[in-house]
Amino acid sequence: MDAYDRNILKWLQGDGRMSNVELAERIHLSAPQTLRRVRTLEESGVIRRYAALVAPAAVGLEVTAFVSLSLDREQFRNVREVERNVIAFPEVIECHIISGDSDYLLKVVAASLKSLSVFLTDRLMQVPGVAGVRSMICMEEVKPQSSLPT
């Protein structure tokens, strides 16, 4: 990955809908060279996908919580099944394996505190193999999802 590739990533992370011609102008390469580089970045998995970033509150998701999840050590042999169950919930928008006191850190969205409580109690905590759940409610988003440094 050279400076041109990094520059492509910088611009596309800011605007994934930018035309190839506009991108080529910004990075000072010809349009065919730029397109070839973008395709290589896509095919190699550097660019995973393109998506629209939606404001949660604009679609009725007023609550964001970070949830630490611990697994039952007796059920650890079923860890991939637990993961499949957890990531199948649409409320879980991120899932990370972490070190420390918990096994996973989830980012969860919900319409209200009540609906978050129902989700945690009636659904997430009922997944076989889940031993413990601790939630931290996000009071205010200071820096929303942003570009990776290039």
Automatic annotation (TrEMBL):
- SUPFAM superfamilies with a match to the protein in the record: Dimeric alpha+beta barrel, Winged helix' DNA-binding domain
Kindly give the Gene3D superfamilies that the UniProt entry links to this protein: 3.30.70.920, Winged helix-like DNA-binding domain superfamily/Winged helix DNA-binding domain
Question: Could you tell me which PROSITE patterns the record lists for this protein?
Answer: HTH_ASNC_2 (PS50956)
What domain of life does the UniProt record list for this protein's source?
Bacteria
* Pfam families, per database record: AsnC_trans_reg, HTH_24
Q: Which InterPro entries match?
A: AsnC-type_HTH_dom, Dimeric_a/b-barrel, Tscrpt_reg_AsnC-like, Tscrpt_reg_AsnC/Lrp_C, WH-like_DNA-bd_sf, WH_DNA-bd_sf
All residue ranges annotated as the HTH asnC-type domain in the record:
1-62
Q: Print the keywords alphabetically.
A: DNA-binding, Transcription, Transcription regulation
Query: Sorted alphabetically, which PANTHER family does this protein's record hold?
Result: LEUCINE-RESPONSIVE REGULATORY PROTEIN, TRANSCRIPTIONAL REGULATOR AZLB
Specify the protein name.
Answer: Lrp/AsnC family transcriptional regulator
Q: Origin organism of this chain?
A: Polaromonas jejuensis
Its ancestry begins with: Bacteria, Pseudomonadati, Pseudomonadota, Betaproteobacteria, Burkholderiales
